[in-house]
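Need a sequence for this fold. Nothing fancy.
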């Protein structure tokens, strides 16, 4: 069974992706994340951080950003589900999510955060990674 995350956790994940992957400056107001490109409260609604972890379209912009950052993103769809693989330029695997069925966008966000070094891989020991 896949873990269920709350709306607040989703928005926090969206904000992390916006900051670490999309390289935006984020401000929080009324418990919502906004890009800091415009501090005018009247225009703030236009700057609401996209729903990267729940919208497939927004997640694909994350994949395109990873490519701009020099990573290779492979998305394979077959009878088992969807597999997302992020690779370094040299072909070394950075992150892989297999048999994604319902949480494609969320998995893309986690893969992106792993790629930019803001999240660890499953089973990875952070102490080892720092050495």
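Here you go.
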């Amino acid at each position: 069974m896949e873990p269920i995350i709350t709306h607040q956790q989703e928005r926090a994940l969206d904000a992390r992706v916006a900051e670490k992957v999309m390289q935006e400056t984020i401000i929080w107001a009324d418990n919502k994340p906004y890009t800091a490109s415009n501090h005018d409260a009247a225009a703030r609604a236009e700057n609401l951080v996209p729903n990267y972890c729940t919208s497939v379209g927004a997640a694909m912009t994350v994949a395109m950003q990873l490519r701009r950052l020099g990573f290779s993103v492979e998305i394979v769809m077959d009878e088992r589900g969807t597999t997302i693989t992020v690779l370094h330029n040299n072909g070394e695997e950075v992150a892989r999510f297999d048999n994604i069925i319902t949480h494609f966008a969320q998995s893309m966000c986690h893969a992106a955060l792993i790629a930019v070094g803001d999240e660890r891989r499953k089973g990875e020991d952070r102490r080892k990674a720092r050495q």
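For context: Residues 125-131 have pLDDT under 50 and may be disordered.
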